[in-house]
Request: fold
Amino acid sequence: MSILNTNIKFLPSVGEKRAELLKKELSIATFEDLVLHTPFRYIDRTKFYTIAELRKSDVAIDVQIKAKVQHVQLIGEGRKARLVVTVYDGTGVAEMIWFHSTSWVLKSIDREREYIFFGRPSLYNGGVSMVHPEFEAHGMSGGVVSYGVQGVYRSTEALRNNMLGTRAIASLIRVMWQRIEGQIEETLPLWIVHKVGLMSREEALREAHYPQSAERLAKALYRLKFEELFYIQLNLLQAKGVRTERSIGHIFSTVGDRFNRFYNDVLPFPLTGAQKRVVKEIRQNSVTGHQMNRLIQGDVGSGKTIVALLAALIAADNGFQSAIMAPTEILAQQHFESLAPMCNKVGVSVALLTGSTRKKERERIFAELLSGEIDILIGTHALIEDPVQFSRLGLVIIDEQHRFGVMQRAKLHIKGGETPPHIIVMTATPIPRTLAMTLYGDLDVSVIDELPPGRKPIKTIHTREEQRLRVMGFMREQIKQGRQCYVVYPAIDENEKLDIASVEAGAAALAEFFPPSEGYCSVVVHGKMTTKLKDYGMDMFRRGEAQILVATTVIEVGVNVPNATVMVIESAHRFGLSQLHQLRGRVGRGGEQSWCVLMTGDKLGADSRARIEAMVETTDGFVIAERDMELRGAGDIDGTRQSGQAIDIHFSDLARDSQILADARAEAIELLSIDPLLNGGENFQLRVKIAKMRAKESGIEELDLSKIS
Ligand code: ADP
Ligand code: MG
Reply:
């Protein structure tokens, strides 16, 4: 047994009680856990870095620069104000940025004077910046110290109260290090270590705890992250390779008459370049004889629905049925209403099956599915209930994938009979590329990265309570021009405090401003209503009979009312960033200018403010997703939590380490192209590691669709 498995309580000065605490607070139970508890940040005051030097590499260390203030600029006003101090050190310029304490900094900093700035540099668009650096005039107390790059360890309140603060943890590690030195085994095959030029594992861990220089530290961290990401990629890619190789899939060999007639005569608009590309990818994927497992990512409004339909038409022309699943009845119905008439024109028959489909209709649908009369079945998860049998299911399309549990996906899969249907999942939750590669490394990914032409970018405005009247006035103006408005409240929850604006109260207040006696009609839709009532309200809004829809987030995904131009989000600070973005995507779907109004109270926490700012700054879903990931950490992104896949990431930061991920992925791909089953003797270690990872994952086996077929 390796010394690394030693219980931490045997380390001098730890003992039972603190061992328990370490386990509870930081999941540190063994020597190994402790050696993996590397510093969460580093500082280097051994020298002055030059700006040119910082521009060359993304140093993960807090460093100091010595630079002269060139100019000072206050950008924005009120809460959004930020102070940007541009400095120059002879090798380049950098920006020092403050979001608060701006007036204090303004007072204390003089132009033309040289200062030492100390902080974490970041690279953005080729420029170097530091947020909230410490600073002092050059020639005062600070300067160069001798103790080298220092690691700062994560601790917690409870640990600090038991004399296990940052420094105490550092000294525990020092004591342990003496015992384990020379006994840390390599976990990657040597040939990879050499090929990629990695540090050995022991060297990397030593360097991570006791860095000798910024360069060596960077190399050490690269090694630790590379290893972690490499195994994740290898695992996913290997599974995918094996599955693709072994899977059989229907072959959609022809693009037939109905598809062509639809494309040439029925399709109401030309496809965007991105839509065409994705249709082509689907098409190529459906003639390989292997099952397709494809994720289509496209921002809200990018036109995923029509792409799904075109795929279903290809299936139909090849004699196969398709199922399109939406997360809510409202959405299923909307798909049905927009797609069925178009399909009927080319003789493709479409049916709608949801929880509220009447018994008689239901029986008819069941019969026609079995006889093959129905080509496309649209519905909610009711589609996966047992009585639903297809005669020849060839394609399953799952819209807004993140709303679906993994189990449901698997169940649908079974319905395909001997040969599994092709599977397309569509999501509007923009997942950052790095995360997508990690989570869905086993799926093929298509991206619709282009919006249909003629869309005007949505204008986003942040307003406060005092401006409510103006907002109402603005809505009135829009309604006068024939437009419609959404007003969205955070979900109703009895447990929440009274001060939360509730939908009902909000609707009542709105009714006073938009009285029915003057011809206004507003409808209320929220999660606690019956489906029937909800649909009734939605329908009135969709048909344009109601000008205002007051709702909770039930309208979050997919609802398509192109005539709506205003989205007012009440208590916007209560929503997550990706949710806000989804909501905003409900407007701007027609040719008219649209607005998103974010209402908040006066006091906003730093995170809320950052979310609101991101919304005001950009409408690009991928930028929003990246920002969301930075703010919340990757583990918390919608798609992650709901994908059912645990990503066990210790060293890497998916928001920052995309290059390392790409490197690791490239290495994994190359290795698998040579040894797809990892049978080679030199790859024994990899095979064992992956077997262990899979065993650990076995609780979520259903994600691996191949096991079911
Ligand atoms: P999402 O990707 O959010 O599901 P939808 O499929 O609902 O987006 O499409 C949004 C709107 O854009 C719909 O009204 C749809 O008819 C329209 N649309 C889709 N593709 C195009 C296109 N190529 N040109 C013009 N309008 C399009
Ligand atoms: Mg959609």
Observations:
- The pocket of magnesium ion (ligand 2) is lined by residues 304-305, 399, 558 (CB under 6 Å).
